């Protein structure tokens, strides 16, 4: 079954960085720090917009091709959210350190690195957004992201936030992100699937990322990510403006 | 000024039109954290508390944290990085591109008689030009009156880092009533002799004849900032620090 625990987050945990956040959900814990806008190196300088530099560090070992792939996915999504045109020739640096990944209870894994890339993307993206908000980097809007797996049998064919065991059995895994204006921001898929299946995945993900949750609902599709983001930030802002 | 129910906004939120102040004569002024998308949408860009001033017909988002982004007419404390033929290159925040300070932008400066500042010197200055495509430009003299008005090189003393929110509160015209920060007045009332300069970029310079006083005032500011102390706690802190010093 999907792990339908509530996400947890803490903001501005690092004293030296401009903004930082930790985020834990579905077995993943990620810490992120944001510095910027700062001076870009000559190589990264763009005359009309800020360069968004994303660095993903795995829980163990040094990053490789896998992390570079995640970085490129996150970089293109976050550049859409940040008002990059406001800071030409500058750099916004986002460092994401994966601290914990869910373990497969049935297999002894020696390597802590995830075998699939996509399940970690929502945690990385949420951490990056929380850290950016903590750093007060001007942004166009916020976003929410989720992972959906299509499993071959069972009552629930679509699994939200699947555990590693489900991922092994899954035909395909999809990661989707929606902005706060209900627009699709990111859609990456892996495995075999039909157009019909993708449409179902799209609807399920949109449900989680966009629709406000009502209290009397019983079908646990997942946490209300947008509400979570808002309450987390409200707490932080209220604490910062204690003197008001 | 503050509304009864604080309204928190996130980037991209829609602002209810009833919250936008209207005025017969004055144009609407948007402060930090808001952007105007023509024709009529006003959208927050940071997470914070939306504040509207109906008298001045202005609105802005109040937040704390992040990196200082230069804006015209801000008072800042910069450090001289190096000197060129006509300019000093100044550092306002670490790792950002340099701000320029013309060597003639001091009170009474002429081509023959201009202040000689070594690299590392602190200068209290006003931001004249803050344009996203250019490096920010500073001045230490009011261009209308030709007077320094308190700006210029800061000699002796020490600069302390504080949060941008505390710097903003210290710079308020009535920092005690509106900003709820009283620690400097309290320490002054206890008999300490010191002077301060507050930079909007999160720097407070403290000057005094006695090094002990400088450290004490700096520590008091840092503790007020980190501990998020209210006025009563600030009073206790001032008393404790004075007692410890004796």
TrEMBL record, chain A:
One of its GO terms (biological process) is U4 snRNA 3'-end processing. InterPro entries: ExoRNase_PH_dom1, ExoRNase_PH_dom2_sf, PNPase/RNase_PH_dom_sf, Ribosomal_Su5_D2-typ_SF, RNase_PH. Pfam families: RNase_PH. Keywords: Exosome, Nucleus, rRNA processing. GO terms for cellular component: cytoplasmic exosome (RNase complex); nuclear exosome (RNase complex); nucleolus. It is found in: Nucleus. GO terms for molecular function: RNA binding. Residues 9-138 form the Exoribonuclease phosphorolytic domain. Belongs to the RNase PH family. This is Exoribonuclease phosphorolytic domain-containing protein. It comes from Podospora didyma.
TrEMBL record, chain B:
CDD domains: KH-I_Rrp40, S1_Rrp40. The keyword Nucleus applies. It is found in: Cytoplasm; Nucleus, Nucleolus. Pfam families: KH_6, Rrp40_N, RRP40_S1. Residues 28-67 form the Exosome complex exonuclease Rrp40 N-terminal domain. It comes from the Eukaryota. InterPro entries: Exosome_RNA_bind1/RRP40/RRP4, KH_dom_type_1, KH_dom_type_1_sf, NA-bd_OB-fold, RRP40_KH-I, Rrp40_N_euk, Rrp40_S1. GO terms for biological process: CUT catabolic process; exonucleolytic trimming to generate mature 3'-end of 5.8S rRNA from tricistronic rRNA transcript (SSU-rRNA, 5.8S rRNA, LSU-rRNA); nuclear polyadenylation-dependent rRNA catabolic process; poly(A)-dependent snoRNA 3'-end processing; TRAMP-dependent tRNA surveillance pathway; U4 snRNA 3'-end processing. This is Ribosomal RNA-processing protein 40. It comes from Podospora didyma.
